Amino acid sequence: SDLMIQAARKVVIVADHSKFGRDAMLHVAKLSDIDQIVTDRELEPEFMQLLKDHGIECIVAHSGSNTTDAR
Asked: For residues 37 and 10, is the Cβ–Cβ distance under 8 A?
C-alpha cells in the first residue's frame, strides 16, 4: 500500500465510526499521507481535532447531502 499511496494524487480512507479510537491490526497509512476520511457518523471531538490538526478533510456520509469538514 505504500507504493500506491506514493503514486496517488489523493489518499482517501473510508471507515465506519467504530474504527476510530481502537488499536488496528493493519497499518494503512500515516496521518501525514491522508487527504480525506469518509465515515458514517460524526467522530468524537478529539478525533475531529486530530484530523483538523493534520489538514485532513472528514466527510460524514449521510443518506442526505450533509457533510462535515474537519479542515
From this structure: no
